[in-house]
Design brief:
globular, single chain, 697 residues, 5-stranded antiparallel sheet, alpha+beta
């Protein structure tokens, strides 16, 4: 009967169930197991955890080995409803993560949990990848017994899967809690990034057992199309909504799951949705990106939603505004020192939402600016043997004179500085002129404003620093650029002023070089740049690479540049936190673009085959070159090859080598990648590894 069960057609989710999952972040289905099967599973879990003499795990939680010690549970994972729900959300070819666990919760009065867990989001350790809005990962929670609210089903906060955790840690302050109760045999499938917690069990006598599993997508919707029982391509707003509005995000996810980028259903969805109306001004939307989620009122938009509105409603101008907002942004302080903190800027998700040649061209241009900085780093490291970090600046009044109208930009750790002679004591940027010079150079530079119509997306004037003597020979604003300090080759620097405050403080951002200057023209308010330039460059390119990866096949033009960057980065002997994060996201983006391009275009033409083969080889190089202790990068490279399926064949030998890796998760994904390649040698190696793994338990 198990064979027939496993071979039965999957029971796919409906449009309504998929829309519920997109909006609320969870959906429940019953696996259809019999009462006898469920009771047997309950008894076996009790034995595993509470009967050391009979338990193969000696009473310890078997964790990742739970399915080896409880093979009957495969009846659950092969159930048509189970397979159908996961196929609907993750597409065909989804894979099971190696980590699993039985969560037992005894009644409180019998020694069980005395208080609920803190609200939290799980981390994608050890890969520590950024949260995804589109469903790449899910958690599955299975109950083998009836689990009413009194027994402590997992608490979740519907709708919180798209926003940073920190905004929802105030213990039910918004009354968002939902107890995922269900009958025996129920699975609750939740978006991996939803806020949740373990509760307490107030039942008189029954222990609650729950098995948690994780699954990930490996196939792009571009290749599969919609994988649920779709009846209408138009997004219908569900009747039950979370507290906040993320309508363009929901619509984009719906389109993405059908293999499309964009917002085709947004206009019709807006007609039936009764939530807030977004601002129709670009500058207002950009300003809203930095709001705290705690300021979000019920039914209004979150910062993530504002980013998607920019992508949806303003075309090329919206994309440019998103990119400028990203370039002007600062990461959370934890980004610099916490290796598993990978929260991205809202703009990264929105930039990855709207395909089209114009959008990709704008994003690709920004990526190439960051690649220039990486090349500068490498040139410096090759020449000096020391890490190049660019220049780190502070601003201060000239000669310490509080009344001076000059502002000095000093490079930290050196005696090099430059002074800006302001037209007024407090800068009046409209029409301001000044004289800028480097004290260790004979030539001065003219600080000049263009016409007032030349504004960036924030409504701030853009100005340029140009060579005073050569100005007559420069044509067009785009050419009015001069090197700020000692640089490499003929790279020049263009500055834009951003974030001017009423007190006169301002920030200069240096396009494409990683330099970022923060300062005030007033005494006592001089703030150094937040984060060294190399960290800011890595922050930007992490977000840019993520966006390109989300665009999938639409970003195929970016693949050669991403491969160039990956090759340069893989040559580093050591990596810092921000570099590790940038590399992990870069590798995943290569895998996503290559796999979706491969499945979309197949082997239609020679150039396409060549770039896909190169992508596989670069991913193999990254795995082999990356030190063993950089586990997250190595796993990301293997998973990217897994996604490429048969197109990973050029590095079959690398994957076979990975089967002997010291870390079991590398072995796990490498074996599945070899099965996807499907050659006799690949299959033989994978089967031998899996048999050996089973025998070790």
């Amino acid at each position: 009967t198990f064979g027939k069960w496993a071979q039965a057609d999957p029971i796919l989710l409906s449009d309504e169930q998929m829309q519920k999952f997109i909006v609320e972040g969870y959906v429940q289905v019953n696996t259809g197991l019999s009462k006898e099967e469920l009771e047997h599973l309950y008894e076996r879990m009790s034995t595993l955890l509470y009967d050391p003499e009979q338990s193969p795990s000696k009473g310890d939680n078997p964790n990742d080995n739970v399915l080896t010690m409880l093979p009957e549970f495969r009846r659950v994972t092969e159930a048509p409803a189970f397979r159908g729900a996961l196929t609907s959300i993750l597409g065909p070819g989804y894979v099971e993560h190696a980590h699993k666990r039985i969560h037992d919760l005894q009644p409180k009065h019998m020694g069980g949990a005395q208080a609920p867990q803190a609200w939290h989001k799980d981390q994608l350790t050890p890969t520590a990848m950024p949260p995804h809005h589109h469903p790449h990962w899910v958690m599955v929670l299975f109950y083998c017994q009836d689990t009413p609210k009194i027994m402590g089903p997992t608490d979740i906060m519907p709708g919180t899967q798209y926003d940073p955790l920190t905004e929802y840690m105030s213990d039910d302050s918004r009354n968002l809690r939902l107890q995922a109760a269900g009958k025996a045999g129920t699975i609750t499938i939740v978006h991996f990034d939803i806020v949740h917690r373990g509760p307490i069990n107030l039942h008189k006598s029954t222990t609650r057992f729950m098995i948690k599993l994780n699954y990930r997508r490996t196939a792009s919707p571009v290749a599969t199309g919609p994988s649920w029982n779709i009846k209408s391509a138009v997004f219908q707003v569900p009747k039950t909504l979370p507290f906040c509005n993320a309508l363009p995000l929901w619509v984009n996810t719906w389109e993405w799951l059908q293999g499309k980028n964009g917002f085709a259903s947004l206009e019709s969805a807006m007609k039936e949705y009764k939530g807030s109306t977004p601002p129709d001004d670009i500058s207002e939307l950009v300003e809203a990106l930095d709001r705290s989620h705690e300021e979000t009122k019920t039914g209004s938009d979150t910062p993530n939603s504002y980013a998607y509105w920019l992508a949806a409603n303003f075309g090329q101008k919206g994309i440019q505004a998103l990119l400028e907002a990203l370039q002007n942004s600062q990461p959370h302080p934890r980004w610099h020192f916490n290796d598993i903190y990978t929260q991205l800027h809202p703009t990264a998700y929105a930039l990855g939402a709207n395909g089209g040649e114009e959008a990709v061209t704008i994003i690709l241009k920004a990526l190439r600016e960051e690649i220039k900085f990486v090349k500068e780093q490498k040139m410096h490291e090759d020449k000096t043997g020391q890490r190049y970090t660019g220049s780190f600046f502070v601003m201060e009044p000239e000669d310490g004179d509080d009344e001076s109208s000059s502002v000095r930009i000093r490079e930290v750790g050196t005696n090099r500085y430059m002074d800006i002679e302001m037209a007024e004591e407090k800068p009046d940027w409209e029409g301001c002129r000044g004289f800028l010079y480097l004290t260790n150079r004979s030539k001065g530079c003219l600080f000049e404003m263009p016409d007032a119509d030349d504004m960036d997306a924030h409504g701030n004037p853009v100005f340029f620093i140009k060579d005073g003597e050569a100005a007559a020979h420069l044509d067009g604003l785009g050419d009015q650029r001069i090197r700020l300090l000692d640089g490499f080759d003929d790279e020049y620097t263009k500055f834009a002023r951003v974030d001017t405050q009423e007190n006169g403080s301002f920030r200069l951002r240096c396009f494409g070089s990683g330099h970022c200057l923060e300062a005030s023209s007033q005494s006592g308010d001089h703030v150094p740049v937040k984060g060294a330039p190399y960290e800011m460059s890595e922050w930007r390119r992490t977000n840019i690479a993520f966006a390109l990866g989300e665009l999938g096949a639409d970003a195929a033009a970016a693949l050669p540049d991403l491969l160039t960057l990956a090759r340069m980065e893989s040559l580093r002997d050591t990596m810092f936190e921000s570099q590790r994060k940038a590399m992990r996201v870069l590798v995943e983006a290569i895998g996503d673009i290559a796999s979706s391009t491969a499945h979309k275009n197949g082997r239609k033409e020679q150039h396409g085959r060549k770039i896909l083969s190169e992508a596989a080889n670069v991913l193999g190089e990254v795995f082999l070159r990356t030190p063993d202790d950089e586990l997250a990068i190595r796993i990301s490279a293997i998973v990217a090859l897994l996604k490429m399926g048969t197109f990973a064949a050029p590095v079959e030998s690398v994957l076979i080598k990975a089967l002997t890796d010291d870390f079991v998760m590398v072995q796990w994904y490498a074996a599945q990648a070899l099965v996807r390649i499907g050659t006799p040698t690949a299959l033989r190696a994978a089967v031998h590894m899996m048999i050996g793994r089973w025998a070790q338990v």
